[in-house]
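Hello K.,

You asked for the raw outputs rather than the summary table, so here they are, unedited. I folded two proteins back to back in the same session to keep the settings identical. This is the first:
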Amino acid sequence: MIQILDRYVLRQMSVHFLSGNALFIALLSAGDLLFRLARMWLQQGLSGWKAITIFIYSLPSFFVYVFPMAVLLAVLLTVGRMSGDSEIVALRAGGVSLRRLTLPFLVFALWACGGTIVIQEWLLPYTASQLKGIWKESSVANWLLEENAFFRDTTEEGIERIFYVRSINTQQSLLEGVVVQEYDERGLRRIINAERALSQEGKWVFEEGVSYEVNVRGEVERVIHFAREEVRTEEDIENVVKIQKKPQEMSFIELKNYILRERARGQRTEKLEIILWQKTAIPFACLVFVLLGVSLGIVSPRTGKALGIGLSVLVVFGYYVFFSIASTLAEGGVFSPLLGTWLSNLIGTGVGGAILWWRERK
């Protein structure tokens, strides 16, 4: 009987999970991604095949957040229907506890959690690089300016430059809002802050900026305002766009190693650490949503599809609002990055577990 119950639950969960993914992908992409693709297809000459390819390669960035949401919806619909048809009452009368009933839901959530990690660690970095290649080959106008990018330039022997760029305008081959930290064997020696930069004939050309020269004690000893400043390089804008990665596009190990390097340079890494631990907290939200979904589905036994969708959207909205608030507090030093990103999971587990325990006792 138990094995039949497990297969029965997993089969229903699978159906609702797939439909939930389709629903949430449609909701998340319709207002932004599909609108821009349609505009570029109709107005800027983007081919239909490339638009479809771009959409497919963009899906992994949605799936990281959609998988936990779809798990919650699947749990609510499955438990709500079983409870509404008195199947849970019959199972409990037959000696099946709520803890045992929750087990197949948790098994499914573990599968979804593993799938989210695979997408986040391997598929998302791959598709991000493929998208960059597509935009590089496209003749249409910029998809979007690359925002908040960073990269290293080690062209000159003994000198390393770390670029922090507000945006990369690939259409005009410009770096905009540029801050460069220049290091030699003694450490930080110069900071360049420029309105824009471009690569010309093997040089980075900075325009309209300020250069801060730093002594061995880390103190600024001279400030130079310039209209134009040049440094040698073998990089160009196209190569920068191709190789640079946002922290969200890095794997856990890549981002962790980058944080260690930045910390060794004396840089603040709180924001990066929050992104790092978000890579663990978001996949395991699948397990949290199972506890919340089972407990809420039993409390509301007449949960139909419309109510189930509404309740799942409400729970997900509350979870991510609290998740954002806790992460912001962690960025401000109120919590550690680990606690700030995992606090929503801990509270959600406590709430869902407490309701299940109360229902079991009752």
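The second followed immediately with the same parameters:
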Amino acid sequence: MKTETKNKNIFMRFLTMNTSNQTSGRSLPLWKQLLLQLLTLAIAFEVLFPILYIITLSFSSKSTRPSTLQLIPTELSLVAYQQVLDKPTANPVTFPVLLKNSFLLSIGVGLVALLVAVTAAYAFSRFHFKMRQVLMVLVFIPLLMPAVGLSTPLYLLMNSVRVTDCGQGITAIAPFMTCAQGAAGKIIFNLRDSLLGVGIAMISGALPFAVWNLKGYLDTIPHELEEAAAIDGANANQIFFQIVLPLAIPQLAVTFFLGFIGHWQEFALPWLFLSKPEDYTLSMTLYNMTGQYANAIPWNRFAAFAVIVAAPVAVIYIALQKYITSGLTAGGVKG
């Protein structure tokens, strides 16, 4: 009986022992640590499972639908990658053109939205003017609406801007000018059916979040730094570009990266606006690889293309990791 009691006490001490080596705060017994580790591993497996499955599928030389779930590649074939890089789909559009279109949209929209947002956020953070609170609420309202819900007015607005060749050397720019009544004009440029129009529409959706995100961070920058620079003779532009912007680089990187993810993977607006294959993006092409039936999809090429589409996001994150980490934590303390 004493032996059983002793063994039970040893078992309980083993489960309640503290192995976290914490010198302050709440210590965790071993059984809680094991439970948290198992929960963490389960969450990690759930997150990594589809990624590992797609990567494994991309190294397959068979384009048929897989019949089993494999997480470890049985072969390392690069045929699928070579095929999608040579000719992604049946459309006569090369991979470099698709890559260029996606980069133009994501990088261009991210930089323009960041430039406009940081100036607007600085104005909201430092200047006190009439209707300031009302304008901040109006900036926030688009975040409450789904992006697809705004696509119809954006479509109509962009579609109203066209350049038409009316003949006889006459060019009309709608909505300011139109061809003569009865004249059959030829549309030279339609803002809606162009990367520029899609970019403008995407900027309108990216600005609200960027303004609010940067405004909260700029509030944490001490006013005394700007006052000291003003005493030393710096003007408003020098204070903004030489004092505020360098201090805001971490949050600028965070805002750009979060926007880049959404812009790079944007599908709804380009699919709704664009009609010419030469303007397609990578996400649109990935959707084009799907067919009506699952057996008709080239699964290995689909997986390889998905990996290629996801790779730039990982590269940008690694490049900006230092600023992203500091930007996510620095704004949490008022200083």
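The chain has 14 helices and three strands.

Happy to rerun anything if the numbers look odd on your end.

Regards,
P.
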